[in-house]
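Quick note —
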Amino acid sequence: MAVRVAITLEQCWHRVPGGTATAALGCVEALGRLSAPPEMVGVSAWHRSFPEEPFAPGIPVAALPMPRVGLYWCWHHMRRPSVPRAVGRVDAIHATGMAVPPRTAPLAVTVNDLAFLRHPDHFTPRGLRFFAQSLNLTRDEADIVVCPSQHTADDCVRAGIDADRVRVVPYWADDRLVPLPEAEEVRQRFQLADRFVLWVGTEEPRKNLAGLLEAWQLLGERAEELVLVGPTGWKSNLDRDLAASKSKLDGALASSGPRIRRLGFVAEADKRALMRAAQAVCYPSLTEGFGLPVLEAMVQETPVVTSATGSTAEVAGEAGMLVDPTRPEGIADALAGVLDDEASAACLGSQGRERALTEFTWKRTAEGLLDVYRELAG
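Predicted structure written out below.
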């Protein structure tokens, strides 16, 4: 008999769904590919409409009768309403984000990262309170804590979660390679330079965009563009940093056209095509729980420059250029190495795709989660 599991998917309705929504939906898709998948039902707050693509859940979603702010507050402070109130009887509940419902069935909580402990200054006071409450509830009530990387698993143990409750289940990424003609069409549609470096993510302090912009300045006059893709998050100083960067560059590079382009949010298919078209993807975050853009770029056979510390190094392995994210000089040197040596760049891209397709598969993700659900169901 199939395990019936309730999966929280409220982050799909967030103003900035971000990586947590992408990862949760990827888990649902992976589980659905199994020959004998669990019976899955999503859980959300009350909404007037369904999320737009690419954040529309691929499973039925049952809503609890209150808006998100009220639901999150009641879950964390009153430990109600129960998930079965919306979905009926389940064998397990999987909280895929940091909103932790009451344990009215065996409970798994995904902890994507504990960045708020490493860099509390990167978060709002409200965010810090919410994440601290979530960590306390996870520590006290979760039967199993699911982490996408060993880096996050180690952080959870240091935060007081018993190691025997922690399971590492890495994420995966769409394994389709975008054809080069399609990637070229997208590059032309966005009117980008023939050669460009791509950054993808939500604009927030830990993504280290200020360090990337400083590194880009250090490269001096080049033909390539730096292209930024993703929504504005919180505590972002990108406008200020971008203005400062352009003021330093425009005088010397007036004949070269725009050196930095900010595209904002783009469709998922366009994002993959941009990754395929780029000469490199640079993702020098200060801390990550996994780093999906790194894996997505590797799938597209694009060289990756990313942080040597934390989970992104786990994902990239020897197939990436690993740098100290606090040293813009090192980021600049790594980018120059990729941009100036096409043979080495091609080798890195090939190695990255091979690693992505062998180490981070949908089947590994799905089977890891199914093992968790079966363990919970007893």
